[in-house]
């Protein structure tokens, strides 16, 4: 029995650890029995995991090989037929699907760096404060994160509303005529909403990484005469690079699956936010609007592969870059 | 995160050797102030709006109070459509609490098992747990909908509860916590004293893991409270909806039917947020460690 040592004590409890506590006199049969008992603790999870993860993924792949076809003159209703990889060829050639993927990725290229810069800025500013003050500010920054995504989206939809929201009026005062629901502004509106809602969470991770750096490093730089800005840029940022890579990756994975916010904005701007605005919206409407489960399943498999590929590339790319 | 991490004392002043000019200190505070304003102002607007009636919402300044109608609004929210709002609130609590509790227990057992026992397939299990983070939720929810409709679970509370029992992220967190908080010596000692494995788990491991368990529960509670896609897909009858789904529906009705439910939606949104925010502020120590730990490990 070997215990893999971890690097940190999450609860702060000073748990002592020791090497393999194997007693050689015990028989191997006894060990097998104990291992089986140990595995039994994981059994409820394994059964549930099979039911809620493995079977659905398998079923999605299976379903993607079938299609609903109207039989004969369309009188006999729908009929399920095996179509092989037809759904996949159709998906790979589906302009609307790739447009939705591209739309989301382009959006991600703007929104994610902005949000992460803001989160990094928050973390660096907090780091300049005495601990107790920093904690008060941190709590304020986390308020948006405590609000459910749907409620946050609803709230901003009203804030953007030309009739009800204060934003249009405030911007008019400074001479800007903004229509947040207009098609060219919609990504800006949605980007601001996502940034507002997500920045606290990312700040928390980056700030956590920053506080884990031994303070002596910064003190040494100060003794050497480095200014605070220089320390922030040349020492603190490189130290939290890992956290930035991770938050960036999580944000990209989340962005490829964006659904709630555009669905809500569809209520106010249905011409702009079409049924194929984002990949998941397209899949959702294919399944539950057009009842084309096979095609929706094929698209979800393709999307899963895209998510996997992009995560892999992002990880390789950012890990290779010189620090 | 290493053992060299130093916890600053509460109230500790700026690090030694900091030579911040008055100007840069002011700059830092201005930056922080602007960011606080950005984070809080929208919530302030929601609070103010929930106190206004339909007319004041349209004709008064959004950032300051008009006639104080908060209690009338709350009454309206609670009475609308035979008190369906309360029903949604209870449903949300049910999904979040039961889903969170059962999910946490399952996750603690699985995390303990992966952390402390060598059984065949252990590596595979851990790999599957981590790999599943990458699966798009639509890829799971849709086939799950088809499966649940075959066995007649669609449009029942189980369609939402069962998937929330199984959280790979919770298992991963529970494993990390077990690695750190459960000394092997105590378990060995209990075994030598003749305690059975079940008893060791429930009487020793679960107690040692109280902090970790609380964190796992909190994070899954919040996740279950916030979920939208799963209930949207699975639930038809509005008596089983969660608050999120109900508010979404009220909002779509507001726009579609031309009935002005604005005050209803805004007050309902505020009411749905308050318990969660209080809960999270009170418990912030737990979920904060969970978020950073889960991300940085």
TrEMBL record, chain A:
Region called Disordered, residue ranges: 1-24
Gene Ontology cellular-component annotations: plasma membrane
Gene Ontology biological process terms in this record: transmembrane transport
Residue ranges annotated for the ABC transmembrane type-1 domain, each copy included: 101-314
Record carries keyword Transferase: no
Keyword check for Cell membrane: yes
SUPFAM superfamilies from the UniProt entry: MetI-like (SSF161098)
Membrane-crossing residue ranges in chain numbering: 35-62, 104-127, 139-159, 193-213, 239-259, 293-315
Key words, A-Z: Cell membrane, Membrane, Transmembrane, Transmembrane helix, Transport
Name of this chain's protein: Sugar ABC transporter permease
Subcellular location field: Cell membrane
Automatic annotation (TrEMBL), chain B:
Record-annotated membrane-spanning stretches: 26-47, 93-112, 124-145, 157-177, 198-222, 261-282
Membership in a protein family: Belongs to the binding-protein-dependent transport system permease family.
SUPFAM superfamilies in UniProt: MetI-like (SSF161098)
The name this protein goes by in its record: Carbohydrate ABC transporter permease
Places the protein is found: Cell membrane
Organism: Streptomyces hainanensis
UniProtKB keywords: Cell membrane, Membrane, Transmembrane, Transmembrane helix, Transport
Topology within the bilayer: Multi-pass membrane protein
Main location: membrane
InterPro entries for the chain: MetI-like, MetI-like_sf
Annotated Gene Ontology cellular component terms: plasma membrane
GO biological process: transmembrane transport
Source organism, top-level taxon: Bacteria
């Amino acid at each position: 029995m070997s215990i893999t040592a971890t690097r940190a004590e999450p609860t702060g409890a000073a748990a002592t650890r020791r090497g393999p506590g194997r007693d050689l006199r015990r028989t191997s049969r006894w060990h097998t029995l104990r291992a089986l008992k140990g595995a039994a603790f994981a059994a409820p999870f394994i059964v549930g995991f099979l039911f809620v993860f493995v079977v659905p993924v398998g079923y999605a792949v299976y379903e993607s090989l079938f299609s609903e076809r109207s039989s004969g003159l369309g009188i006999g209703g729908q009929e399920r037929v095996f179509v092989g990889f037809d759904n996949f060829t159709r998906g790979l050639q589906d302009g609307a699907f790739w447009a939705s993927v591209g739309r989301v990725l382009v959006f991600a290229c703007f929104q994610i760096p902005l949000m992460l810069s803001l989160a990094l800025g928050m973390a660096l500013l907090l780091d300049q404060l005495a601990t107790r003050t920093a904690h008060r500010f941190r709590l304020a920054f986390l308020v948006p994160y405590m609000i459910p995504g749907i409620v946050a989206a609803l709230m901003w939809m009203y804030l953007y509303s030309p009739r009800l929201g204060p934003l249009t009026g405030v911007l008019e005062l400074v001479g800007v005529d903004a229509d947040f629901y207009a098609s060219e502004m919609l990504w800006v509106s949605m980007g601001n909403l996502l940034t507002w809602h997500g920045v606290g969470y990312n700040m928390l991770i980056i700030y956590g990484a920053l506080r884990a750096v031994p303070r002596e490093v910064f003190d040494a730089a100060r003794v050497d005469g480095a200014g605070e800005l220089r320390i922030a840029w040349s020492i603190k940022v490189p130290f939290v690079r890992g956290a930035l890579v991770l938050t960036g990756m999580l944000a990209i994975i989340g962005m490829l699956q964006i659904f709630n916010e555009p669905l809500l904005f569809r209520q106010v701007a249905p011409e702009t936010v079409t049924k194929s605005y984002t990949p998941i919206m397209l899949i959702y409407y294919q399944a539950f609007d057009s009842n084309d489960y096979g095609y929706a399943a094929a698209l979800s498999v393709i999307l899963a592969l895209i998510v996997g590929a992009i995560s892999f590339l992002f990880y390789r790319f950012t890990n290779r870059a010189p620090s | 995160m290493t053992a060299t991490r130093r916890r600053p004392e509460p109230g500790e002043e700026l690090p030694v050797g900091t030579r911040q000019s008055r100007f840069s200190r002011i700059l830092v505070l201005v930056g922080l102030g602007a960011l606080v304003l950005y984070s809080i102002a929208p919530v302030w607007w929601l609070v103010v709006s929930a106190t206004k009636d339909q007319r004041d919402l349209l004709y008064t300044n959004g950032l300051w109070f008009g006639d104080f109608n908060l209690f009338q609004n709350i009454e309206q929210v609670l009475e609308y459509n035979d008190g369906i709002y309360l029903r949604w609130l209870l449903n949300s609590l049910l999904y979040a609490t039961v889903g969170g509790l059962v999910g946490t227990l399952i996750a603690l057992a699985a995390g303990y098992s992966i952390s402390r026992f060598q059984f065949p397939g252990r590596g595979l299990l851990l790999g599957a747990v981590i790999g599943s983070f990458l699966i798009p939720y639509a890829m799971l929810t849709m086939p799950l909908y088809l499966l649940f409709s075959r066995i007649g679970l669609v449009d029942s509370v189980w369609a939402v509860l069962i998937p929330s029992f199984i959280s790979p992220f919770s298992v991963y967190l529970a494993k990390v916590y077990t690695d750190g908080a459960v000394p092997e010596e105590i378990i060995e000692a209990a075994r030598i004293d003749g305690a059975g494995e079940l008893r060791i788990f429930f009487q020793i491991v679960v107690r040692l893991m109280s902090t970790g368990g609380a964190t796992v529960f909190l994070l899954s509670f919040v996740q279950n409270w916030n979920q939208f896609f799963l209930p949207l897909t699975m639930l038809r009858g509005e008596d089983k909806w969660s608050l999120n789904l109900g508010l979404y529906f009220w909002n779509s009705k507001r726009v579609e039917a031309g009935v002005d439910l604005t005050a209803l939606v805004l007050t309902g949104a505020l009411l749905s947020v308050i318990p969660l925010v209080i809960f999270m502020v009170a418990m912030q120590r737990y979920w904060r460690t969970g978020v950073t730990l889960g991300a940085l490990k």
